[in-house]
Design a protein that fits this description.
12 strands; 269 residues; D-Maltodextrin-Binding Protein, domain 2; 10 helices; alpha/beta; elongated; 10-stranded mixed beta sheet; single chain
Length: 269
């Protein structure tokens, strides 16, 4: 099975699961369905809970599945809002309305025991492509490098490819995981591992590396020093529905943006 076929299978499974779950819930017109990026998911859940307290007659139901699955869910009428942690592709821009709700740094993470503190983007390309196979080649201990990547269709992966890999392919030997949390857990337990994930979700159990000498933190993303930055998008098909517009307005409000900032993200504007 090719990578494209696997991606289609994963996407089809995600959409099917969403259809089944939707069929199990009572559709009373007051539930706002938000589907997509697992990077945005925990932040959308937080905002959905806060929004629900202000609007007790409306429920925000947030599901993961990946950025591409979120866009497809909106296209198929299975979600009011898609969550996408990458820029829209050329073929998507004419079909969907993107709303930037925040910006996020893309953190390069290693086990805390790894002595390496920073890498260049060129070194990252070589590590993830398999050209560099031993940590001692980049100032680390003598030992194998185990790159951890995300699945096809992941907005995080597509952002990483765009920002770091360019036309260089990620090694087929890289371990593939389907969420930020899964990548984090593998890196936390493996001194040889290196991965990438949302900066807002890193926490203190793993180490985020400097990239091209720049520290990966919100302040450095805001000033433009740290370059591995991607948009967090809410995506709708055409104009948002009134219910979706009301939630998006809350997310973009001072209260919503402050909540995202407190979780390590950068304001939309």
């Amino acid at each position: 099975m090719t990578k494209t076929q696997r991606a289609i299978l994963v996407l089809g499974t995600a959409v099917l699961c969403w259809q089944l779950c939707s069929g199990c819930r009572r559709d009373d017109g007051r539930t706002l369905n938000v589907v997509g990026s697992t990077s945005i998911q925990p932040f959308a859940e937080l905002l959905g809970q806060a929004y629900g307290k202000k609007h007790p007659d409306h429920m925000v139901d947030v599901q993961g599945g990946g950025s591409t699955a979120g866009v497809q869910a909106v296209a198929n009428g299975l979600a009011h809002i898609g969550m996408c942690s990458r820029s829209l592709k050329d073929e998507e821009r004419d079909q969907f309305t993107p709303i930037i709700v925040a910006r996020d740094g893309l953190a390069i993470i290693v086990n805390p025991s790894n002595p390496v503190s920073g890498l260049s983007r060129e070194q990252l390309r070589d590590l993830f492509s398999g050209s560099i196979k031993n940590w001692k080649e980049v100032g680390g201990r003598d030992g194998p490098v185990r790159p951890i990547t995300r699945e096809e269709g992941s907005g995080t992966r597509e952002s990483f490819v765009s920002l770091v890999m360019g036309k260089t392919r990620i090694s087929r030997a890289a371990l593939t995981q389907e969420s930020n949390g899964a990548v984090k857990e593998l890196v936390r337990g493996d001194p040889a591992a290196i991965g990438y994930m949302s900066l807002g979700l890193v926490g203190g159990e793993i180490k985020a590396l400097l990239v091209d000498g720049e520290k990966p933190d919100a302040a450095n993303v805001l000033t433009g020093g740290y370059k591995l930055v991607r948009p967090f998008l809410f995506v709708t098909k055409g104009a948002p529905t009134p219910e979706a517009r009301q939630f998006i307005t809350y997310v973009l409000s001072a209260e919503g943006q402050k909540a995202l900032e407190s979780e390590g993200l950068i304001r939309a504007q």
